[in-house]
Amino acid sequence: MTVDGSAPITELKLDRKDFVSDQEVRWCPGCGDYSILAQVQKVVPTLGIPRENFVFVSGIGCSSRFPYYMNTYGFHSIHGRAPAVATGVKLANPHLSVWVITGDGDGLSIGGNHLIHAIRRNIDINIILFNNRIYGLTKGQYSPTSDFGKKTKSTPYGSIDQPINPLCVAIASEATFVARSIDIDTQHLTMVLERAARHKGISFVEVYQNCNIFNDGAFAHFTDRQFRSDRVLYLEHGKPMTFGKDLQKGIRLNNLNPEVVELGRDYSPEDLLVHDEAGAQPTLAYLLTRMHYPDFPVPMGVFRCVETREYSDLLTEQIEEVSRKEGKGNLDSLLAGDETWVIEEEGAILESVSGRERPGEDEESYHPANNLDAHEEPKCAIRRSVLNDRIGEVRPDPPIIASPADSIQSAIERMARERRGAVCVVENDELVGIFTERDVLMRVALKGLDLEKTPISSVMTSNPITLKADATLAYALNQMAVAGFRHLPLMDGKKAVGMVSVKDVVRYMSENMAG
Amino acid sequence: MSSTTETIEPPAGRKVSLKELDQAVIRFAGDSGDGMQLTGTQFTNTSAAFGNDVSTLPDYPAEIRAPAGSLPGVSGFQINFSSRDIRTPGDLPNVLVAMNPAALKVNLPDLEPGGLLIINEDAFDKGGLEKAGYEVSPLEDGSLSSYRTISIPLTSLTLNAVLQTGLNRKQAQRCKNFFALGVVYWIFDRPLEHTLKWIEAKFGKNAMLLEANRSALMAGYNYADTTEVFTTHYQVRKARLTPGRYRNLTGNEALALGAVAASVHSGRSLFYGSYPITPASEILHELSRYKRFGVKTFQAEDEIAAIAAALGASFAGDLGLTGTSGPGVALKSECIGLAVMTELPLVIINVQRGGPSTGLPTKTEQADLFQAVLGRNGECPVPVLAASSPSDCFWAIIESFRIALRYMTPVFCLSDGYIANGSEPWLIPSDRELPDLTPVYAQDPATFKPYAREEHTLARPWAIPGTPGLEHRIGGIEKHHLTGNVSYDPNNHDLMVRTRAEKVARIAQDIPPTEVLGDSRGGKVLLVGWGGTAGAITSAGEQMRAAGKSVSTVHLRYLNPLPNDLGEIMSRFEKVIVPEINLGQLRLLLRARFLVDVIGLNQVRGKPFTIREIIQKVEPYL
User: Fold this and answer.
1) Is the entire prediction scored with pTM above 0.95?
2) What is the predicted ipTM?
3) Pick from B271, B300, B306: which is nearest to A92 by CB?
4) Which of A127, A220, A236, B429 has the greatest CB tally within 10 Å of its CB?
C-alpha cells in the first residue's frame, strides 16, 4: 500500500489508540490473534494515511472479527469473499488503503478462487492470512492447511487430505509481494506488515497463528524461543542464508535442491544461497516455500517483492485515456445511438441520421451533417444554407457568465435584466455548466428551492453539449432537435464565447433567406 | 394478411397486384452461418426508418457453430412490422424465408396456413436433405401444398450476380442472404437506400465486398421485379407514432443505457461486476464500451465475486450493479443477503432463461420470480421490479436505482431472454427528462449513527469511506439498531427483522397507482401480468375488447412489494387470470397476499406467449 500523497505524515499525528475501536475484543484468551491485532494497530498510524482512508474487509472465521476491533471503516463480509469485496472497494476509490483479513479456511478453502484471482490481478490490497491450520469458529475441524494424518473432530482417524501451501499458491498466482511471519515474534511481524503496507500492488502475508483451544502448539516445535534460532531461517534481501544460534549453519544449492550445511570446515558463507526477493523469476521464492521443518529451517520474512502494473491504476488510466480519446461521455448522444429516425406530426420521416457516439471511430466520419445527402449539392436554398453555413456566422451574443457558487436568484435576475434565456457557468475560465430558463421552470420552480441560498451549480446542466464556430447550422439544429435544447454555448477551446439560441438561428435564416 | 386488392400497372408490363396490409410478420431462417440475424436487422431498420412500428425476435441456437446444415444449427429472426401500434414480434409468420432444409423443418410448423414460403432450392440437395432428416424432398412430395411456395435457386443466382466482382465461390455464396433480402424488399415494396448506405459504411474500405453485397441485394430485388414468379407485392403503410426521434434497441442495450443514465443522474460512478452468462452477457459488452462515462466494468472470476465486488464498490460510494441469469442469481444469493443486512444500494439484474439448473440458456422463461422474491435464507426482503418490453428495460433499471438509493437496499430488476434480445423502436428521451437520483450521504460525525434511520423511508445513512469522523463497521452479523455493532440481543433481532421488512413494504407508498387498461370500474375478466409478457397480454386484451368482450388488463412493474391498490382492483372483476411463463408463481403470491382466487394461464415452452394463445385460453371464462 502506498502513502496517499495528499496527506503529509507530519500533519496526521496518529497513534495506536486512534485505531482501537470501542468494541470489546472477544477472541479466546491466549489466542494469537491478539498479537496480530496489536501489531497492525502499531503499524497503520505510521503510514501517513489518514484514518478515514483505511478499510478493513474480512470474511468469516475467528480472524474475520478483526475489522470490528479497528477504529476504521470496516466490512465483515461473508465466508471466503473478502478479496472480492475488497476489490470492489479499491476500484471504487483507489485512494483507500484496503486490507483483507482472512484465515486458512476462509482464504484457501471456500475463498480459494477469489484469493488467486485477486492476487493475479495485482490489485493494491494487503491480504493478511492468519494460518492456524484448524477451523476454530466451527469448533475444531481440520482445515486445508492441516497436516496429513491430523486428528480432529471431523477426522477422528486422521486426515487423508494433503495440505495446501499458502505461499506456493500466492507465488503460482504471480503475487508481487509474498511474506511470512509468526504471531509471537512481534518485531518481525511489525516489520513484515509495514513492508506489506508500503508495497504497491497485491501484498500477501501468511502469519503463523496459534489456536490455543483447538490446535495448540501447531508451530511450537520451531517457533518456541528455545529452538527458534535453529529452526527458523530469517530471510534478508542480499544476504547469504544463515541460521543457528551463532549463524553457523546455512542453505546451499545442490543442483536444483537446497541443502543445509555447516559453516567452517567444508563451507564458507560464499558457498551459500543469497536471498534475492526481487528476482525476475519467482523460482527462488518458490524453492523457499518448499522448505519445511524438520528437514529445513522454516523461512520467515519477505520471500518476494517486485513491482509491476497495479490493477486499480490500470483501470483509472484506461478510463482517462478513453475519455481523452473519445471525449467525455454525453448522455444525449449515447441515448440517441448510431441510427435514429424522426417521426413528424403527420407520420412522415424527416431524415435518418446515423453513426454517432460510436467509440473507436474517427470523429469526423460521424458528424451527423455528413449524412444529410452528402452526395449532391442541395437545390433548395434553405437546405443549402443549413448544410453549409457555419454557426459562427450567426454571430450570437456573448454569454452571461456566472460562477458555480452564485445563487439561483442572482442568475435569474441577470437573465431577466438582460432579457436572455441562459447563463454560462464558468470556473477558472472553463465552462462547467449551463443554466437556462427551462431549468428555472423544471428544476427550480417545480421543486420550490430556496433561491437565495441554493447555488446555481446544484441545478445547472453539467458538461453541456457545446458548439464550435465551424459547426454547420445542420449540426446545431440536430443537437437542438435530439435533446430539445434551446441554447447551446459556442466555444473557443474551453472558453464559452457565445450563447446560440434557437431564436438566433431562426433570425439568421430569415434574414439570409428572405431575399 | 387481410387486405384490399387493387391492380396496378407494373413497369414491366405484366400484371402485378398491390395489396395493402396493416401488418405483416416475416421470419428469416437459415443456418447459423447464413447471416440471418444481419438480414433481419436490415429489414427491421429499413422498416423502422420507413415509418412502420416494428417488433423483433431473434432465435439463435445455443451452440456457437453447430454443424452446418443441421437442425440444431438453425438460426432465425422474426420481425413484425405494421401501420398500427404493435407490441409483439407477431404470432405466426405470414412469410417464411428458408435458406436450407433444416431451416424449413424447424420453422415450417409456425408458418400460417396459406402463408408465403420462399425456399432456396439450391440447398435442397441430397446432403442438405439428409442433414435435416428428410427422406424425400419436401419440394417434391406435395407436403408444402397448403402454402404458397416459391422456390428460387438463391445460391446459383447469387453466384451469377457476384462472381464477376472477383470474389471466390465461397465468399460469393455468403452474399446469398442479401439476395434473399432483395427479394423480400421487393415483395414488401421497401426502399433499398437504408441497406445500400449500410453496405457502403460497412464495406467502404473493401471495394470488392462492397460491390458484391450491393450486387447481391440489387440482383435479388430485380429478380423479383422482372421474373413472373411473384404476382403480388404488398404495402404496409407508415404507422401513426408519437412524433419525435426514435431508435431501435434491445432490452439488454436498454439496461446498459439506463444504468449509465442512472450513474450520470446520481453523480456516482457506475460499477458493473459480472460473469459471462447467456442471455445477460451483452450488458457487460455494452457497458465495457462506456469508459468515457467513467463506467467501471469488472469481469469477475465467478458470479459470487461479481456481486461481492459490486457490493464492495457500493460500500465505497459507487453505484453497484451486477447482472446475470437464474443460475448466477443462485450463486449470488448469500451476497444478496449480505446487501440486505448491510443495507447498501445495489441493483441485481436477472435476465431470466429456461431453468432449473442450466435449463434452456437461450430460451425465455419467467420462473425466477420466487427466486427473486423469496430465494434467500432468513427473513430477507428485497424489492423486485420487472421490465415489460425491450425499451422498458431502460426505465425499469432507472427506477430500480432510484429505489436502491432512496431506501438503501438491494433491488432486483428482472428481464427475460425474450425482451433482452428482442428489439423495438424507442422514442429517445432527453437527458433532461430523466429523474434526479442524487443520493443523500452522511456528513456530520456529531450526529452520525450507522443504523439510525430516515423517518419516512427507514433508510440508514450512506457513510462513504474517506469521510473523516464517520469510520464505522458493517457486516453480515445482526446489528444493533442504532450503532451497527454486533448484537445478539433477542429483542434487537426481532426489531431489526421487522424494520427491514417494513422498510421494503413502505416502497409501495412510493409507486404510481396501478393502471387498468380497459374498464377500470370492473367487468368479467381481469388479466394480471408481469414482465416480458406485456406485449402479448395487452394486445390480447385490446383485441378481445374490440370484439366486444369484457376483458381488462393490468401489468405489474412492482412484484415486491406488490402495489397496495391491486387487491381492491382485482375485487372489481368476476375472474382474475394471470398468464405467466411458469407454473403460477405470481398467482401464488397474489393468492397469499390478497386472498383472491386467481386463475393461472401457464405454459413453459421456452417461448413467449402468442396473442392467439392468450385469447384462446381466456375465452372460455367469458
Assistant:
1) no
2) 0.90
3) B271
4) A127
